[in-house]
Amino acid sequence: MNKINKMMTAEQLLHDPLLNKGTAFSQKERDLFGLNGLLPPRILTINEQKTRILKNFNSKQNNIEKYIYLMGLHDRNETLFYRIIIDKIEEMMPIIYTPTVGEACEKFGYLYRRPRGLYISFKDKGNIKSILKNWQSNTVDIIVVTDGERILGLGDLGANGMGIPIGKLSLYTSCAGIDPSKTLPIMLDLGTENKDLLNNPNYLGVKHNRVRGNEYNEFIDEFMDAVSYIFPDSMIQFEDFANRNASRLLKKYQNNYRMMNDDIQGTASMCVAGILGSQKITGRNLSEEKLLFYGAGAAGIGIGDLYALAVSKTGISVENARKQCWFIDSRGLVVNGRDNLSDDKKPFAHKFKQLNDLTEIISEIKPTALIGVSGQGQAFTENAIRKMSEINNRPVIFALSNPTSKSECSAEQAYNWAEGKCIFASGSPFNPVHLDGKTHIPGQGNNAYVFPGVGLGVVASKTKRVTDEMFLIASNIISNSLSKHDLENGRVFPPLTKIRELSLNIATAITKSVTDKISKDSIENKMYKAYYDNYDT
Hints:
Strand order of the largest sheet: 8-7-6-9-10-11-14
Shape: globular
Helix content: 40-55%
Oligomer: single chain
Number of domains: 4
């Protein structure tokens, strides 16, 4: 326990989640820090503590109760919290993040227990540096920031969106060993258009319509200047900004700050990894794919851009690679000559007739993969998936929207309608599907395969910028990690149990692309192991 300041009182120690060990404090530590009588007399190992926590966890009636219970543990003993998350990652990730975190954000005003992170509102404009200086540490490796306008597929949740940065940062530690004491969640409260929240007496954010235009831009500019000044070594991850801002802010800042947008770049890397993985089953190569995106927001366009970059590595121009990507937005197929196309969509607007019906579009375009990034639940109809199966021997169906209620289709629907032929992945987890004597294990296209390893690589290498090439590196490593068993079961993503190893491999490859001065072992030795070496003394 060499991290403990001996000037701390016993009460302060027991209420510091980074240092508190609860009933695991040894007798020597109890004598040294004046803990005798403040704890039950029996001393428990971390494994004994874990057994008790899991028993209580499993007694909860639903996922939101499990979430509340785990967040309570997070608030009092982070070492034990992360030990449990790491050891039970497949069971715990859907609770601490997607899909349960969506419900937690919706109910954030009711669930709020303890302050975590920083809240900066538009009323703090001109004073953002002072707010940032209030943070407990000036050493921060990873910052996750949101303005709460597009939380998952749930829309504008305002300040309730703070659950997302908190959840993302817990995955940075669980999946890539980033020290939790060096992470910082930030909520930029710029108001909300959600009338239910504005009229809710339990809403904790500023009750004001969203700030727009120059005032918004000036605020974000000030924030970026201030945060890079106060925390110069941190990587800044933008999360769940609305389409109107996400892409343009990434383009505005990515060449001047150490920043990324996970909804765009992380999602793109994950999806490209899934496509590369599917090719180990279909036998196709990148130049043979034709991708149809249902949804043409920042995430979908980001996938198209990274896919085009990947194809360009095979000797095909980026312009020709984009011709393999087709998009459907709220007005139908994105085609050349259509009015009011955004600049992001124009490179993917091909010369073709205007169509609106999904099944008809599939019949005409003949895509190899149908990728849902729309936030529109049940958008993939039975007719559409059956048509994909007529055209392709092994159609790729990715229903990536979150949470589960927004998924374009379920795993059971996809496998049944495709008669077991499809290669399926989704944003939210689905249970295995048993069909005609075979078990299909759906892949979860979770960005947690990508951003923790990229973040670790950025921190380890001390690179000044986060590049698209880094996300392509991650895609290739993820797809190359698939085992024969994974592929036989139709999986295009490895089991989450491999995620720390995967993150380390991604970080090492990114570091080597920047500098050869840091080895894989040196990165691994710095990863937070979820327990201090002497936890059980």
